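User: Predict the complex with zinc ion.
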Amino acid sequence: MQITAAVAHGVKAPLTLETVEIEDPRPGEVLVRVVATGVCHTDMAMRDQELPVPPPAVLGHEGAGIVMRVGAGVTRVAPGDRVVMSFNSCGACPSCDDHLPAYCHDFFGRNFSGRRADGSSGLRWAGQPLGGNVFGQSSFATHALCHERNVVTVPATVPLEILGPLGCGVLTGAGAVMNALRVGPRRSLAVFGTGAVGLSAVMAARVMGAAPLIAIDVVEARLDLARELGATHAFNPTRTSVVEEIMALTGGIGVDYALDTTARPAVVGDAVRCLAPRGVCGLVGAMPFGQALPVDGGHLMSGGRAVRGIVEGDADPHHFIPALIDLHLAGQFPFDRLITFYPLAEINQAIHDAETGRTVKPVLRMPGW
Ligand SMILES: [Zn+2]
Ligand SMILES: [Zn+2]
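Assistant: Here is the predicted structure with zinc ion placed in the model:
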């Protein structure tokens, strides 16, 4: 079948809309008509080869849509179902057995290789195999081939076009707070970076009753939004010393939890300096391999402090995405406030606006929706 897809060509190169051939779903696969898909920072990292998905390839990993066809053996979804596509995993390794699929032993192969596990691609362009299966979906396209494991059925009571970001960015921020750090009532949290992931963390922390709940960013408009979404304090590091402010706010003790969404080493150093004894700093920003961090070892060791990486919010999408939708329907998790819609044809503008901080979470609507 012929579809329209945005093809990525390499570092910083604009994506181009192309007519692409997509295969019928193989056993265990699901063909989804995409309604809308979010743009995540990781898409830019893949385009720019910081996460090396070989070009040309179709990126996109926050897709929502309607199931068109299913391959042999698929029982979890059926044609007509409304679904969100999330990250992929193998289903057979120790992490998958423990319902922590973000730590799947084949996470990179299943999400970043641009191919199926058997090395084939479900996409062809100009007579050649085209990179696909990004996060088990490649949803910068009118249609996507995903897998029974990474597709989550969602209720008809929520507009499909807002739901894609639940598959990655929103799940990452909310899950870091709720699943990984397990921030409890009246525990203090500082969120460094208030893009879509950081603001999702702020919303989740408000649900959990965290206080004080501190947001840090260099973009004033994002700090305003963080306050509206539940932050009790907001600091701009270009105007003040964030470490000094946080220490003063906490009586010189520091915060119970810090969350870094920026992947900037100096920011991680500050986040760790702000930790109270037994405090934990979670790292959710995509950090390159080989990256050293300026962390004070004595400070870390002496107070029993910890730093830990968190992928996809420790979430099992099949449980966590419906839980976030329930919170949204209850009025407690207004993640739709982060979204700005663009038509698929304006994908490069959407990426530009995300990179400049003008838009928090771009969502691309497919033609006809
Ligand atoms: Zn696995
Ligand atoms: Zn993502």
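The two ends are 20 Å apart (CA to CA).
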